[in-house]
Amino acid sequence: MSADIALPFANFLLGAFGAAAYAIAAFTAAFTAASLFAAWRFRAARRGEAAGGGGSAEDWTPPLTILKPIRGIDAGMEENLASFLDQEYPRFQTLYCVQDPADPALPLLERLRDRFPKADVDIVISKSRIGYNPKVNNLSNAYGFVKHDFVMISDSDIRVGRDFLRRLVQPMRDPNVGLLTCFYRSICAEGFGSRLESLSVNAQFLPQTLVAAFLGGMKFAMGAVMLARRPAFEAAGGLEAMSEHLADDFVLGRAVAGAGYRVEFSPLMVGSVPERFTPGQQFAHLVRWSRTIRLCNPAGYAGTVVLHGGPLLLLYSLLGGGLRALAAFALLEAWRVAAMAWMHAGLLDDREALRNIPWLPLSDLLQFAAWAAGLSSASVTWRGESYAVTTGGRLVPRRGKADALRAGAV
Q1: In sequence order, which residues have a C-beta less than 8 Å from that of residue 144 and are 6 or more positions away?
Q2: Residue pair 176/263 in contact by the 8 Å Cβ criterion
Q3: What is the pTM for the complete model shown?
Q4: How far is it, in rounded angstroms, from Cα 242 to Cα 131?
Q5: Distance (Å, rounded) from C-alpha 326 to C-alpha 330?
Q6: Which domains does the chain have, with CATH numbers?
């Protein structure tokens, strides 16, 4: 291509990219406003639930079982788990699921059992597997010990208040509700990498899920807390249906909805305590999460490019868009910082999040970099194992590992 043609063509491409960057930035700004409205609606639902609480409205407390998959010791883990044992709830069972007999968390679990001697607590240790998903394998070993007809699966990094179970279970009065799930926000972040992780939850993931729930577009669950009616859970295929998928919560929610039950969001919000990541570890975690979303929902993943208006404006300014694009980037990021500060402090009563909000422009850039990196591979490293991930999010261990994993040899 001659210079006479190449230069106009390059200018055309740059102009087209600039127009797209400005259009996407406008959408990002509008979406940020929509997330404020969704958070306001969520606050109204929480206040309505609180106003209806107390007295006979919360006298319905069916017995339930809590399944907690455990591997190693997470940040704040003892207090996270203790918050589920210290509940104002008359009858519930807690099953800790552990695969390694030498797991360093076992002394902590024994200590919790001693702290709460009246609690119905068991620790199930087994290396048995039903598939490739290590979390689901862990849960499956304890499922045979479940005593009750309502079953909660909740991660070990989640922390709740004392009235959580009593309030959470109320929508299950409706027999058509098969699965309840909870929004979550990041709390108690320690260290710069963990603060970036906290931002990725509080200023990226949470606003997106609030908007999606408001629009009625979500039929999947979130693994922080999933409370299932046992017949609905088993009609959806139970743990076996989740055992070879990376996004087990996504699969469970879709399967319960496919079985004819409703999947609903609780008006409660739980806290998630992030790991003490280094910045590099946090970015690797973002990339793995990006690949998970792309492989489970390719169209949705591609569509999320419209949430990266700030980084695209900055890239355009570096490619030749100049100070005007840079100023637009700064204006958009200032709007996002202000909006996220208002969302958390003004609408979600979470002033703790304010200390991380000033780092939001950096978080936005890292999110875009992770989104781009998520396009590059169909494999993930999870819990020390390397997996290929096929369309639909199905896990396939790397060659040479599959037979050993199925046999429980590794």
Answers
A1: none
A2: no
A3: 0.86
A4: 9
A5: 6
A6: 59-278 (3.90.550.10)
